[in-house]
Amino acid sequence: MTSTTRTTCPYCGVGCGVLASVDASEAVSISGDPQHPANRGRLCSKGSALADTIATDSGRLLQPQLNGETVTWDVALDTLAQRWLAIREESGADALAFYASGQMLTEDYYVANKLMKGFVGTANIDTNSRLCMSSAVAAQQYAFGVDGVACNYSDLESCDLLVLIGSNLAWCHPVLYQRIKAARERRPEMKIVVIDPRRTATCEIADLHLPLRPDTDIPLLQGLLRYLHEQSATDSDFIAAHTSGFSADELASAPDLQTLGNITAVNDADLQCFFDWFAATEKTVTAYSMGINQASEGTLKAGAIINLHLATGRIGKDGCGPFSITGQPNAMGGREVGGLASTLAAHMTFTAQNRDRLNRFWGSTAVPAAPGLKALDLFEAIERGEVRSVWIMATNPLASLPEAARWKRALEACEFVVVSDCVNDSDTLAVADLRLPALGWGEKSGTVTNTERCISRQRAFLSSPGNAKADWWMVSEVGKRMGYADAFRFESPADIFREHAVLSGFENGGQRDFDISDWRLDSDEDYESMEPQQWPILENGTSSLYREKKFYTVDGKARFRPMAASQSLQLANAAPESLVLNTGRVRDHWHTLTRTGRSARLSEHQHEPTLSVHPARAVKLGLPSGGFARVSSEHAKLTLRVTLDENLPPDSVFVPMHWTHSHSAAGPINALVGTERDALSGEPAFKHATVTVAPATSAWQGLMITRTPLPCPDSDYWVKVRGDDYWLYYLAGFKAPLSIQTIWSSLTDMEYTTALLDSKHEQVRFLRIDANERVSCLLAVSTAENFEPPLWAASLFRHEITSASDRLAFLSGVPLQGSTTISPTICSCNGVDQATINALIATGVNTTAGITAQCSAGGNCGSCLPEIQQMINEAPSSRRVAL
Ligand SMILES: Nc1nc2c(c(=O)[nH]1)N[C@H]1C(S)=C(S)[C@@H](COP(=O)(O)OP(=O)(O)OC[C@H]3O[C@@H](n4cnc5c(=O)[nH]c(N)nc54)[C@H](O)[C@@H]3O)O[C@H]1N2
Ligand SMILES: Nc1nc2c(c(=O)[nH]1)N[C@H]1C(S)=C(S)[C@@H](COP(=O)(O)OP(=O)(O)OC[C@H]3O[C@@H](n4cnc5c(=O)[nH]c(N)nc54)[C@H](O)[C@@H]3O)O[C@H]1N2
Ligand code: SF4
Ligand SMILES: [Mo]
After folding, report:
1. Residue among 14, 133, 156, 168 to mutate when testing ligand 1 (max atoms within 8 A of CB)
2. How many angstroms does the Cα of residue 376 sit away from the middle of ligand 2?
3. Within a 10 A sphere around the Cβ of 584, how many other Cβ atoms?
4. Residue whose CA is at the smallest distance from ligand 1 atom 33
5. What is the predicted pLDDT for the residue at 761?
6. What is the pLDDT of residues 351-384, one digit of tens each?
7. Is the beta carbon of 438 within 6 A of some atom in ligand 2?
C-alpha cells in the first residue's frame, strides 16, 4: 500500500507543492504537486532529490544531550528553563537570546517569538533572515509602511519587461525561472534584463545582461531615475496622488549616462538600451535578491528599486512592481510572526500602542519597548558576555555568519549554548552545551509562507525517529517550565496557527496588511485540509497588495527613499585595486550542506568549493586551472582549488558559500568574509569582501575513497564528498611528506592490504580489503603536479566481493573495464555528466531539445537546461574545466 501526502518543499522561497509517497517498505518517492499554484507539478533538482536527504539514523541527532551526555527530555528542558530563570534573575532578560531561522515553520516561529518577546521579556530574538532579506524588509517598511511584498508570481509571467537584479534565479529559484521561461516562449515580445557582475545561468533567458562592477547598483538605478525624469517618463499624477518625498533636486546629482559607463563598467549602448526599454515599458517587474540585499547599502539599493516603481506608478497592478524574491522556505512566515528583533508580531512595529495591544492579547506584561539585537550585534553581545545564553534553532551560524571563526570562539566562551537541529554534525552543534533533537522535513507539521504570500501546509508523512521532537513543542515546554503554563498550552500546530491567525486580525481594522483572521480554521480538520492560499484575499478571490494604492504609512502614501546618503553614489570611477570576493550559491547544494551534502546525486554537480577566477586575472596572478590558490582576507587564509571562469568580471572572484568545516578544510568559507553590514538593516555585505589571491603549490595530492566516512583527515587540503556507496576525499599537502608511503598512515589508523609504487607516475596506490573481501578504502597519492584523481575507481565500491582483477586494475592505475572517468554531473535527475553532453555537442547537437532527445539530460526537472544552453554557446573553445 502506498500512501501519498501533499506537502511543501523545505528549500527555497518558491514554496513548491510536493507529493510524498511512502510504500509498504517505507521507501519515499517525491513528485511535484500538480495542484499547487506555485509550481503546478514542477520541481527542481533539489526538490526532486528530497527522498535522498531523508535520514533517520546515521547522522541524525536522536536524543537530547547535555554536555555531551544523553539525557531525558525532562532533564534537558528543566535544565534550560532553570538556567534561563537564574540568568534573568541575575542579569535581566536581555542576557538571554534566541537565534531563529527562516527554515522554521510558522508555528515554531510564533511560539519562539511569543516566548521571548511576550514572556522572557526581551526583544533579543533575531533570525538568519537578517542575513538574507532584512534589507528588503527595511526598504519595504520605509516605503509602504509595512513589510508587504508587492507582486505575485503571475506578474513575472505577465510583465513585458522583467529586470532580474542581483538574482541568479535559474539556480536559486529554478521553478520560477522555468515559469518565466515558459511565459517568454508564449510571448516572445517579453524582454528580460539580468543585472549581475557575473554572467550566470540565469542570463540564458536574458535579452540583455549588464555585467556591472560589484556594488554599483545605486548609481545605475538612480541614473535610470534621472533619465526617466528627464525624458518625462515618470508618472507625475501617481507621484502627486500616492507618494511623498519625491525630489527632482536629488536627481540632478545622480550620474548621467556617460558617467555611468565609467562607474559601472557597462558599455554605453547596453545602458542606453536598458534605459530605453525601462522608459518605454509600462508593465515592468524588477525582481531582486541577494546581490541587492547583502550589501553595505542593501536597504538603499532595495529603496532605489522601489523608488523607480513609485516614480513610474508601476506598482499594485498586473505585471508591475518591485519584487523581493525571498530565499528560505519560510522567511515570509517569519516576518508574519515578527521573528526579527526589529519587529513585533503580526506585522506590528515597536510602538507603545502595539506593545500594549500584544500584552493584552497574550495576557503578558513583558513585551519590550524597543527592538532587540540584530544577528551580528547579538553575536557581538555574546562575545562580550552580555548575552549569557542563546538558543539557536534551525540555523548553522558558525558556517553562515561572516567572520565565522570569531563566533566559534564567542560561543565556546558563552555560558550556556542551546542548539536544536536534526543532524548531529553541524559546525554549530560542535560547540553546544545542550543539543535538542528536532524533527525534520517529512516528520513535522505546520505551515510556510512563500515569496508571493501563499501559505501552504507542510505535512508529516514519516514517523518520528528516536526521541526527536517538534521545535514548537520544545519551545512551549520551556515556556511552561518557566512558569507560563497558560500561555503555552498548545497541543498541536493547529492550535498555534489559530492563535496566530486571530492575532493578525486583533484590533487591526485595516491598519496592518497582514490579516488572516477570517480564514475558517475552526477545527483541526480544517487546518489539516487547508489548501495553499495567498493573503490578502480580494473580493474576486485573487490576491494583491496595494491594488487600491493604499499604503500603510501615516498619510497613506508611499514614501520615496532619499538617496543622498549613499556612499556608492560618490564612487570613484576607477576599478578597485583589490579583488572582490563574491559568494553565493550553486545549483544543487543548499546552504551549509547538512541536507544536500547527504545526497550523492546532488553532490555530483560540483565536488569541491572552487575559487572561480577570470582567465585573464588568473594569468596575472599566476594561477593554473585546477591548481591551488591561497585566498587571504583581513580575517583568514584559506586554500582553494582554482577554476577558470570567463563569466566573471576580472576584478572579482567567486566562492560558493556552502562548504563548512564538517565538509572541507577550507570551510567555512565565511571565515574570509568580514562583518561590514548595512547600517539600516544590519544585513552583512556577503557579496563584497576584499581579498588577495596567490598561487599555492601542493607537494602532493591524493584521492581517497572509503566505504564509511572518516573523521576529518589530517591533511592541509581536504574535501569530503558523498557518493552512492562511498565517500570521496580530495586531498593535498603543501609540505613535502617524508615519503608518499607515510601519507596513508597520516590519514587513517587502519592498515592497508596492498600498495603499489608506480614510479613512472610518481604515484602510490593503496588498497584495503575488509573481512568480507570488499574494498573498504583506497587511496591514490602522487607528488606529480598533473595528478588525475582516479574517480573511476569508485565503481569498485558497488561490488559485494572484489575480484582479483578489479584490485589489480586499481593498483596498476588502469581504469576498470566499463568504468568511465567521472565528469561533473549536469543533469542530476537522470545522471548525465558533462562529458556525455559535450560529446553530443561535438557531434553537432546544438539545441537543448536535441540534447534532451539524445541523452535525456534536462528531461525531468529542467534545472540543468540553462547550463546545457551555456555549454552549447561556449562550445568548442571554452569548456568548464573538467575535474
Ligand atoms: N541552489 C540553491 N538555491 C537556493 C539556496 C541555496 O542554498 N542553494 N538558498 C536560498 C536562499 S536562503 C536565498 S537567500 C536565495 C539566494 O538567491 P540569489 O540571491 O539569487 O543567489 P546568490 O547566489 O546568493 O546571489 C545572487 C547573485 O548576486 C550577484 N551579485 C553579487 N554582487 C552583486 C552586486 O553588487 N550587484 C548585483 N546586481 N548583483 C550582485 C551574484 O553574482 C549572484 O549571481 O537562494 C535560495 N535558493
Ligand atoms: N558568504 C555567504 N554567507 C551567507 C550567504 C551568502 O550568500 N554568502 N547567505 C546567507 C543567507 S541568505 C542565509 S539564508 C544563510 C543560511 O544559513 P543557515 O541557515 O545557517 O544554513 P542551513 O544550512 O540552512 O542551516 C539550517 C540548519 O537547521 C537544521 N535544520 C533543518 N531542518 C530543521 C528543523 O526542522 N528544525 C531544526 N531545529 N533544525 C533544522 C539543518 O540541519 C542546519 O543545521 O546563510 C547566509 N550566509
Ligand atoms: S524551486 Fe526547487 S528548491 Fe525551490 S521550492 Fe521548488 S522544488 Fe523546492
Ligand atoms: Mo537566504
Report:
1. 168
2. 15
3. 22
4. 291
5. 82
6. 999 999 999 999 999 999 999 999 999 999 999 9
7. yes
The verdict on the CB of residue 11 being under 6 Å from ligand 3 is yes
Fold of 3-53: Phosphorylase Kinase; domain 1 (3.30.200)
For ligand 1, what atom is nearest to the CA of residue 658?
A: 7
Question: Where do you find CATH 1.10.10.1100 in the chain?
Answer: 825-874
Q: How far apart are CA 136 and CA 123, in angstroms?
A: 21
Residue bearing cell 497558560: 486
Ligand 2 in reach of 475 Cβ (< 6 A): no
**Residues forming CATH 3.40.228.10 domain(s) in the chain:** 150-324
| Rounded distance between C-alpha atoms, residue 764 and residue 737, angstroms | 13
CATH class name, domain 579-696: mainly beta
Residues of the chain with CATH 3.30.200.210: 3-53
Expressed in angstroms and rounded, the spacing between residue 328 Cα and the centre of ligand 4 is: 5
Rounded to whole angstroms, the Cα distance separating 27 from 23 reads 6
pLDDT per position as a tens digit, 468-495: 999 999 999 999 999 999 999 999 999 9
Model pLDDT, residue 876: 58
Distance (Å) from CA 601 to ligand 3 centroid: 16
What is the pLDDT at residue 878? 36
Within 10 angstroms of residue 62's Cβ, the number of other Cβ atoms is 16
The ranges of the chain annotated as CATH 2.40.40.20 are 579-696
Q: Which residues pair with 28 in a beta bridge?
A: 22
Per-residue burial over 553-563, b if 16 or more Cβ lie within 10 Å, else e, is beeebbbbbeb
- CATH code given to domain 825-874: 1.10.10.1100
The burial class, CB within 10 Å (0-12 / 13-18 / 19+), for 412 is exposed
**Size (the chain), residues:** 883
47 lines ligand 3 (CB under 6 A): yes
| Rg value, the chain, Cα | 27
Least confident among 85-89, 576-580, 827-831: 576-580
**Positive or negative CA dihedral for 24, 26, 30, 36?**
positive
Return the pLDDT at 879.
36
pTM of the model: 0.95
Per-residue pLDDT, 883: 29
Choice from 592, 633, 688 to test ligand 2 binding pocket (greatest atom count within 8 A of CB): 592
pLDDT digits (tens, 9 = 90+) for 402-433: 999 999 999 999 999 999 999 999 999 999 99
Lookup result for grid cell 510558522? 106
**Span 65-131+330-534: which CATH code?**
3.40.50.740
Residue with CA closest to ligand 2 atom 14: 132
Q: State the pairing for strand pair 191-195/208-210.
A: parallel
Whether a cis peptide bond, with omega within 30° of 0, leads into 197 is no
Q: Is 16 a pocket residue for ligand 3 (Cβ < 6 Å)? A: yes
Q: How far apart are CA 365 and CA 849, in angstroms?
A: 63
- List CB-based neighbours of ion ligand 4 within 5 Å: 132, 327
pLDDT-derived band at 541, boundaries 50, 70, 90: confident
- Atom in ligand 3 nearest the alpha carbon of residue 10: 8
User: Is any atom of ligand 2 closer than 6 Å to the C-beta of 592?
Assistant: yes
Q: Name the residue at shortest CA distance from atom 6 of ligand 3.
A: 16
**What's the CATH class of domain 150-324?**
alpha beta
Nearest ligand to the CA of 686 is 2
> Ligand 2 in contact with 445 (CB < 6 A)?
no
DSSP, collapsed to helix, strand or coil, labels residue 223 as: helix
* Ligand nearest to the backbone CA of 47: 3
Q: Give residue-wise pLDDT tens across range 545-588.
A: 999 999 999 999 999 999 988 988 876 655 566 899 999 999 99
Residue nearest to atom 32 of ligand 2 (CA): 440
Mean pLDDT (whole number) for 716-737? 94
Cα dihedral value 315, 320, 321, 323, nearest 10 = 150
